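Entry 14. Ran structure prediction on the chain below.
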Amino acid sequence: MTGATVQPTPAELAGVARVMAAAGAEPADVLTSSLLSGGRSNLTYVLTDGRTRWVLRTPPRVGRTPSAHDVAREHRVTAALACTAVPVAQAVLLHEDETLLSVPFTVSRFVEGRSYRTRSDLSALGDDGLAAVVDHIVASLAALHRVDHVAVGLGTFGRPDNYAARQLRRWRGQWEIVGSAEPAAIASEIVQALEHNLPEQRRTSIVHGDYRIDNTLVTGGGEHARVAAIVDWELSTIGDPVADVAMMCAYRDPAFDPIVGVPSAWTSSRLPGPAELAERYVAASGHDLEHWDFHRALAYFKVAVIAAGIDHRRRAGAGVGTGFDTAAESVPRFLELAHQITTRF
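Output, structure tokens:
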């Protein structure tokens, strides 16, 4: 499996099969794999033995930034959430020894469902189906935030306090790695304003960190459409749930489209706007969104860093699929959105 996107070789798949067998999920026949499209960070492959399907997740081979491709984190949180009302794929194994594929990897059960990534994908959902999906997306986020992380074994998954300060420190560090020189001044102003207005954390929960429709798998149609699984947990941790809502709303800006590389499902005008999404979350969770402006500004800054990180991987030769050559276009817009809020602090 050389390079960033080459399919695993038969010998490597045989090794994966041996690891799966040791975990109690032995394939019935020789494994084959196919790469799923759409990944901007970790790579996702479907494995099959002709009878059963699984999902293999690995980080990219080159251009990795610290802690941005944490498949171990994904595995731990989904395994813990299996006993809750939060829809997740069944975790099978985590293999952290990099000898086999040159990267750590996870395997989970395949979930039947569709990822609505682009606006053209979204056309398959009628108005009733889309309304039902949006309701379930918001309800699933509220359900995640109700989970007692200690009770499900995630007491050491992350520090429970000072989440905003930790996030700001982390994403500022990421910016220092992947950010370009041209918008450096405005990024510095945003960081300074956020540093001087760090809020008190009132609630603590598991946070997904990257929540929107294309990080869910949807089944059913019409009023029966629902989220079958929330996916892409690599940014998850313990923190302030308001930050999750802010990220969900930040992604609604049309500037997210160049990150996807096509018109995004989540920026569609058929979906509720950010303010309405926030209101729906308040209704579903029963909690107000405290320090909302701070979390919105930080969310916009984080999306800018994510876009810069995608461009960083492109420049490192690890770009895969659409969006890698356009993601940099989003950086100025998301920085400006953050700056507009921080100037009002």
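DSSP finds eleven helices and nine strands in the chain. Will compare against last week's run tomorrow.
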